[in-house]
Design a protein that fits this description.
It holds the Pfam family LPMO_10. With about 200 residues, this protein is α+β, with helices and mostly antiparallel strands. The protein has one domain: Distorted Sandwich (Coagulation Factor XIII, Chain A, domain 1). It has two helices and nine strands; from the N terminus they run αβαββββββββ. The radius of gyration is 19 Å and the shape is globular.
């Protein structure tokens, strides 16, 4: 009888292990300051968002941006086709957070599951950016204007970073925020439309 119970426990354990996704990060998160596209979808401020309206924290894709990571045109969805609505420029009509060039700004992430972290990086679009087209690397200054190293530490559930927005910016731009996970091959991506 003990052998049958032991075999059943081993079989059940093996079955449960196959349900755990391999290689995925345990961490999930999104930016809410400035408000990201996924938050606007989750709040219902933007409609026809697909699955992201229920999972604003799940924009996970390959890490290594800008040399690696999601392909151009899929950056806002982290290369994740489930959330392709985030890459749709909607004619440049996404709601935008008003900011000022050169101002000190507090950037905030909400982490629904925390994870060992390499860093948080913030990129801003350049003069070639057109808000009516999907975001590409050519649209961004590929040197982050703010990098916050974490060296493998686990951040709090709410993370705020003080930084200065680049000077000389005008009009509609976009901030791409990247949370790089330390012990997996993934990062989390968030696009925030801003108006200088």
């Amino acid at each position: 009888m003990r052998r049958k119970i032991g075999a059943a426990v081993i079989g059940l354990s093996a079955a449960c292990l196959t349900l755990v996704p391999a290689g995925g990060a345990a961490g999930h998160g999104y930016t809410d300051t400035p408000t990201s596209r996924q938050v606007f979808c989750a709040q219902g401020a933007v409609t026809d968002c697909g699955e992201i309206q229920w999972e604003p924290q799940s924009v996970e894709g390959p890490k290594g941006f800008p040399s690696h990571g999601p392909s151009d045109g899929t950056l806002c969805a982290g290369g994740n086709s489930r959330f392709a609505e985030l890459d749709d420029p909607r004619g440049g009509a996404w709601p935008a957070t008003r900011v000022a060039a050169g101002q000190n700004y507090t950037f905030r992430w909400r982490l629904t599951a925390r994870h060992a972290t390499t860093d948080f990086r913030y990129y801003l679009t350049n003069d070639r950016y057109r808000p009516d087209r999907p975001l590409t690397r050519a649209d961004l200054d590929l040197t982050p204007f703010l990098t916050v190293p974490y060296n493998g530490r686990i951040p709090d559930a709410t993370v705020s970073h003080q930084g200065r927005l680049p000077a000389g910016k005008t009009g509609r731009q976009m901030i791409l925020a990247v949370w790089t996970i330390a012990d997996t091959g993934n990062a989390f991506y968030a696009c925030s439309d801003v108006e200088f």
